[in-house]
Specification:
The protein has four domains: about 200 residues, Rossmann fold, CATH 3.40.50; about 150 residues, Rossmann fold (3-Layer(aba) Sandwich), CATH 3.40.50.300; about 60 residues, no CATH class; about 130 residues, Alpha-Beta Plaits. Strand 18 and strand 19 form a beta hairpin. It has 21 helices and 20 strands. Helix 2 runs parallel beside helix 3, helix 3 crosses helix 4 and helix 6 packs across helix 8. By secondary structure, it is an alpha/beta fold. The longest helix is centred in the C-terminal third of the chain and has 20 residues.
Length: about 600
């Protein structure tokens, strides 16, 4: 077995690793550290979340710095402030015995004046988010002329978050003779373009290409109606009081609503998303890491950089579209050799996606039942009884106290006392009395009631109200997506793809509908794979979508009986040129 001592690291770094309890390197560390220590080369490291990439680039980076040089020699770019902070802390821990090491982390949402003052001191390493780094460059608060090493961590995520132009600008400011180290979970075409333009003959290391998911993770799903998800989470928490984990939602609005609903019902939960200030995020994360909060409700982006080793559960409130997002989410649990559970709250429309993930990730999703109220009640009774048995007997009682209590209770026999104690405990469990509905769906059962339309409308209105307050990548991503959608709509407005049938549905912008959510809705209600849904155009009072001809026969029947915003959903096949339809379609309709 390879140890860190065999990787040729300096004595101060090796001493710090020993004190931190680091003994055996992970696969990416074992391959990257010898290649990058004391050498100048471009490097690509492909590895999943939780494989130890920070040490893989951080240790050789610290080894290569000239500590007699007061200029900034190393730059590390990360997609989120949480990840940037995590990297900076890791470097400081690894280099605590190095004389002259000074790591500064800069990110948006914090006082830029304070960051500028910190950069005026002798700084060796800067860890930054792209947007804030560009702001500092424009203000001439730092110089990249002496950069010898630049690290792009979670490069695919930075591109997903709309930082492509920022990265290109930043890399263009760098000296040509620098070494570029790129670490990523995936290798999309946008990253290949960065490699082509900014790297020279990079050494490439790919780790765990076939085993993408931690073997210690148990993958599970519960099949239920979309409207029952909040209640299902509450039942899970009531049944298993030891759950400590992250619930992943797709939108910031979902995180806030779910966290508030859980808190109102007495559960320990809080949300983390892009709308929080840095101070608010820090407070939430401090409470979560100290176990004051048992559940963190987060978006994928906000969860970047969360590093907690003892999470028992990752719960997918809504299943992500991309396989990589599932592996990133699941990788938050089962760390440091521990076991964990990745649980999907699945609707019928998610079943094909689960099968796809099973096939590609070589995992198996086990179906679990949502606890019924009677089961929760029985479980709580046993937990209560066990806790009594395990309570140590006290010696802190006077003879007088003992005699007075004994005088009150000695007239009852054992069964009577147990009955009275149990009756008192059951009085606290009124909501778990029998008769509660079974939330589990059967494989062929349909989810007929929908409430997402109202939520989409609220999300849209909230987004419009706060548009001016959105900062950084989120607004850029939305703007680019809107521009792409407009261009695509112009090209496809009057045509259907060959082999596809076009349908009209009376759900549109007035319902707060967006293309991604409409795609989810169509796939969920029809059981059609999302990849087999063609062009989607969202208009004011309705929308158009295309499906392959082979899947078109039962489309209209699949939506019968579904209600959105208090009206029946209507779907009609479009057989003519839709450009001849009036723009006020749907007005005056009963639905």
């Amino acid at each position: 077995m390879t140890t860190f001592s065999e990787l040729g690291l300096s004595a101060p770094i090796s001493k710090a690793l020993d004190e931190l309890g680091f003994t055996s390197p992970t696969e990416i560390q074992k391959q990257a550290i010898p290649l990058l220590s004391g050498k100048t080369c471009d490097f690509i490291g492909l590895a999943q979340t939780g494989t130890g990439k920070t040490a893989a680039f951080g240790l050789p980076l610290l080894q290569n710095i000239d500590y007699s040089d007061a200029r900034i020699q190393s730059l590390i770019l990360a997609p989120t402030r949480e990840l940037a902070q995590q990297i900076a802390v890791g470097l400081q821990d690894f280099g605590k015995h190095l004389n002259g090491l000074n790591v500064q982390v800069v990110y948006g949402g914090a006082d830029i004046s304070k960051q500028i003052r910190q950069l005026r001191s002798k700084v060796n390493v800067v860890v930054a988010t792209p947007g804030r780094l560009l702001d500092l460059i424009k203000r001439k608060a730092l110089s990249l002329d002496a950069i010898r090493f630049v690290v792009l961590d979670e490069a695919d995520e930075m591109l997903n978050m709309g930082f492509k132009e920022d990265l290109n600008k930043i890399l263009s400011f760098m000296p040509e003779d620098k070494s570029t180290w790129l670490f990523s979970a995936t290798m999309p075409s946008a990253i290949q373009n960065i490699v082509k333009h900014y790297m020279t003959d990079p050494v490439k290391v790919t780790v765990n290409a076939d085993a993408k998911v931690n073997k210690n993770i148990s993958h599970q799903y519960m099949l239920l109606k979309a409207s029952d998800k909040q209640e299902a989470i509450k039942r899970l928490l009531d049944f298993n009081e030891e759950i400590y984990g992250v619930i992943f939602c797709r939108t910031k609005m979902d995180t806030t609503e779910l966290a508030e609903a859980l808190r109102r019902s007495g559960y320990s939960a809080d949300a983390i998303n892009g709308d929080l200030s840095q101070n608010q995020r820090d407070v939430v994360m401090k409470r979560f890491k100290s176990h004051s909060i048992k559940l963190l409700v987060a978006t994928d982006v906000a969860a970047r950089g969360i590093d907690v080793n003892d999470l028992t559960h990752v719960i997918h409130y809504r299943l992500p579209d991309e396989m990589e997002y599932y592996t990133h989410r699941s990788g938050r649990t089962a760390r440091a050799g521990k076991k964990g559970i990745s649980l999907v709250l699945a609707t019928r429309g998610d079943l094909k996606q689960l099968k796809f993930f099973e096939s590609r990730l070589k995992i198996n999703f086990e179906k679990r039942e949502i606890p019924r109220l009677e089961s929760i009640r029985s479980n709580k009774i046993m937990h209560w009884a066990t806790s009594i048995v395990e309570t140590p007997e006290t010696t802190d009682i006077t003879p007088e106290e003992w005699e007075s209590v004994k005088g009150v209770l000695e007239s009852f026999d054992k069964d009577q006392l147990i009955n009275k104690l149990l009756s008192r405990e059951l009085s606290k469990m009124k909501k778990f009395e029998s008769g509660g509905s079974d939330l589990n769906m059967k494989e062929g059962e349909r989810d007929r009631e929908r409430s997402r339309g109202r939520e989409r409308g609220e999300e849209r209105r909230s987004r419009d109200r706060n548009k001016g307050e959105k900062s950084g990548y989120e607004e850029r991503v939305r703007s680019r997506e809107r521009d792409k959608d407009k261009d695509k709509d112009k090209k496809t407005r009057n045509t259907s793809q060959k082999g596809f049938s076009k349908f009209f549905i009376n759900i549109g912008k007035m319902d707060g509908a967006t293309k991604p959510e409409l795609l989810d809705f169509i796939a969920e209600e029809t059981g059609i794979d999302k990849k087999d849904v063609g062009d989607i155009s969202v208009e004011k009072t309705g929308s158009y979508f295309e499906v392959k001809n082979d899947d078109s026969k039962s489309i209209t029947n699949n939506f019968k009986g579904i209600i959105v915003n208090g009206r029946d959903v209507k779907v009609k096949e479009e057989r003519g040129d839709r450009s001849r339809r009036p723009d006020n379609r749907g007005k005056g309709r009963k639905d």
